[in-house]
Automatic annotation (TrEMBL):
Lineage, uppermost ranks: Bacteria, Pseudomonadati, Thermodesulfobacteriota, Candidatus Desulfofervidia, Candidatus Desulfofervidales
Alphabetical list of SUPFAM superfamilies matching this protein: YcfA/nrd intein domain
Signal peptide: none
Protein family membership: Belongs to the HicA mRNA interferase family.
Name under which the protein is recorded: Type II toxin-antitoxin system HicA family toxin
Keyword Manganese among UniProt keywords: no
InterPro entries found in the cross-reference section: HicA_mRNA_interferase, HicA_sf
UniProt entry keywords in alphabetical sequence: Endonuclease, Hydrolase, Nuclease, RNA-binding, Stress response, Toxin-antitoxin system
GO molecular function, one term: mRNA binding
UniProt key word ATP-binding: no
Amino acid sequence: MSGRELARLLKKYGYEITRETGSHIRLTSKLKGFV
């Protein structure tokens, strides 16, 4: 599973990609700040 696929899955749970550089993706949760 790639990071992008994971990000798409996590989007259902309130996460979003805040920064993407190369293969590094930072996810931020909108649910009480848990990451």
